[in-house]
Amino acid sequence: MEKIIFDIFGVIFRILLRYWTKDNKNSNILTSNFIDITQFAEKCGLSFLEAKKFNRTIEDFIDKIANDFIREFGTQIEDNERKKAILYQVQKDLQKINLNENTILSLSNNPSALQMLIMNQSKQERELWSSDELSLYTNCVKYISKMGIDFISKLPTFSSAALNIVIKRQEEYSNKLDDILSEIHSMADLVKSSELQFREYESIYRENIIEKYGKIELIGSKLQDRHVRRYDITSAYVELNCVNDNSMEELELSKVFKSNNIVWLKGEAGAGKTTFLQWIAVCSAKGDRMAIENIENTIPIVIGLRNIEWPLDLTKVVNKITATEGIYCPKGWVYDLLQNQEIILLIDGLDEVSKSKREEIYSYIEDIAKKYHQIKILLTARNSVKDNINCPKSCYEIMPMKMNRINDFIEYWHESVLRRDAIIEDVEIETLQYNLKQKIIESNSLKELACNPLLCAMLCALNYVNNEQLPENKMQLFEQCCEMLMDARDSQRNIDTNMYENIPKLDYPMKRRILEEIAFRMLNNGVSSENKQTIIYFLQQLLNDTNIISNTNNNYCVENILNFLIERSGIIREPEEGSIDFIHKTFMEFLSVKTICRNGDWDILIKEACNVNWRETIIMCFSEMANANINYVLNQLVDKGKSECDDRYFLMASLCLSNANFFYAPIKKEIDEKIREMIPPSEEKIEEMSQLGLHLLTFLKNSEKYTPQEKYNCLQLLATIKVKEAIPVILSYVKCYSDATFIPIYQFAMDLLWQYQQSELEEYDVKEYIFSNMLAYVNEDKLITCETTLYILNNYYLSNKNAKLLKTIKQMIILGQNSKNQKGGKTNFGKYFEACETVKIIGDTKNLAFLSQFMNIKRLEVESNTHLVILTYELKELKNLISVLTLYIQTNQPEIRFIKRMSENMKNLEIIEIYLENQDLSLDSDTFDYFSQLKEVRFSVDESLANAIIKNISKIKGTNKNLAISINSNEG
Questions:
Q1: 162 and 75 within one domain
Q2: Which of 80, 254, 579, 681 has a Cα-to-Cα distance from 892 of 20 to 30 A?
């Protein structure tokens, strides 16, 4: 039987290798017959010795797969003769496949297509088989098809050189093969429905979701040809961070479902919203519970709002995934999923539909959430969508990539686009990556572009194509990227439209003009995708009414022109049959700018000023407009804001002003004055005003007139402007406040400073400033400071005079990081507080490393609601706490038993004081046994808990019968 299995995989690999050559238009390999792998390699141009190496490489892959196959199916069906017969049938079916060009091309990277092709060879022979025999046959063919298509898609684009790449990277491809086989097995374990029909459909549906959303298009991925290259999201996905709107907690995107089943995810254009949504869909379909938290046992339904049919029907959405194979959702399947609350709804692009359509979606979600509490829902939108849903949810904003994420993104782009197909040598790729990273580090303008995944991909592509010459601003970036995608590579490779029937010669300005007009039409109609026939009709009218194409050349077909642009421009596409959209909405917005400026339609900018779908286009127009036009639009926006008492017009005017090349000074002064009147911002205006970015810095400096809340709101606004130029403005809030109600302002400002790089803080002499400020908080032998202050002052050198002053400090209050977005660190600044005997820590800090240099603490007080698992672990790591005699803990966490963890490094502890704000209390009988010097435990609790402790005093004492227990009721 083993020989049959190895023969089966020998046949399938010959089929797969023929399939691999499908994109090589000039190759005769596809229609050639060959007996073995060595012969195939020789036909591809390898020498005999190279061909033998390639054969051995493929044989190793076959060995791995065959052994895995035997483990998977070896125990199914006890009758070995029947098992052999079934495997022989599989082998015969494979051999019967007609390997002509049309058959191979029809597989289209689809495992299901290959499965059907194989199974269609023996329908009649299997009619009398038992259900077990049919199941084994089907599972074998499904395994072969899935493994084969998935593995061949990992290989570089076919060429003679590609065979040597496979030999060279054998171990790498072997690891990829392990991942494929592991995924096949895990997918088989996912389907649990008791209904056979449901189980079969769910299996097909999950696989199709992975196929549809498991590949992503990368900007610049068509550097060698115009055929759309889609990359495996598993290898191309880079984890991004987001921040919670309410708590300001920063966390990885994979954790957005940790606290709520409904998540609203917003972000700027190109921030990675749709890619993350696809990643969730794939992880859910695969059952990958490690990649995304809290989505286990879910089945994804993806709703792309730009192409959705109204009214919304989940069954229709599901059917779109499998209908291409003639398979439709069984009646009752979606209802069953809803009842079992297994669905995860992924709703993409709220900003791409009208407000009335959004209201329909919100009503639908509210109804679903009310009826099915456990169903998970993700909604994505740009920041400009300010709507609200009336149901419990968590709102997050995707953060711009920091330098470490930018580095990761650059590496995966080069790995996916250049290294995968060995377009250039690995050494050259490493040099390209290194140089690009250095340029971004050294240039603030490039860093500002690179922090956006879409723009970062453009930079990677242009860096390669333009011999490492990069644009410096967003408009230049889009301009060069459009030229690269539409024209440059075709020009270099002498691709001519004459090879297409009934198409005139289209140069770059012609292609660009046509796409600009399509873009503006879609923007003006408020759509992100359009029916193909509608676009064909529009183009017919456009070309008839303009001289874009010379009147002498009217022998053309409009539909062919559109198909040519879809295939060759790299800007528009046909994601679903009969539907046209741009590869990213940002390209539609950018290309619309030229049409607006060409038409001089300035009034439309004023009319749409508050339309969230026009925001990016209006701002970009100002970099193309003449001075007179800029002043006209700005004046109109200001007048509109005054007459309608609507600050949105002033904010838009200010945004446009920051992007304008020219402007009239008086109008700038008037707009700035209006912005100044909005400072300090009200809480509800913070998010809207944050769009002004750097332009706000001059207005946000601290003022003595501000209340604590107003100062806090200003700092919240500053927290959204993540550039080093904000540091001096934040520093204006770092001062000695005599009024205790302002202390949280000092703390918040310090927390914001700690988020910056050390080099950026040094550039503005931050250490010197905050140390002098720290001294202002010294009161006799007491000091109030912040955890982040101690971190920032790491390695700060003190004069003898200042060092002597700090040595007089005996009592300290240290304010822990206030936000959940806590950044850890190390500091040696505590060494100056050698006389400090009492330290009180206030706040929910999760990192106590700042205490490590305090060598003489006698009394340690911790007022924190951080989980005691974390808190006690941190204290346990501090070996310097052996000097502590009294430990005071005030918390709302009941798990006091974790205190015993600290017995190793607090051996001299004599008194433990516990102030508990929680009515529950979790103590083990040995909680205090490990503190050999412990004399007394003091509880401050409410009356009911006090009575419970009294009843259990002997248990609480444990083995230390001399331990004194005192209880104080803290009620009232």
A1: yes
A2: 254
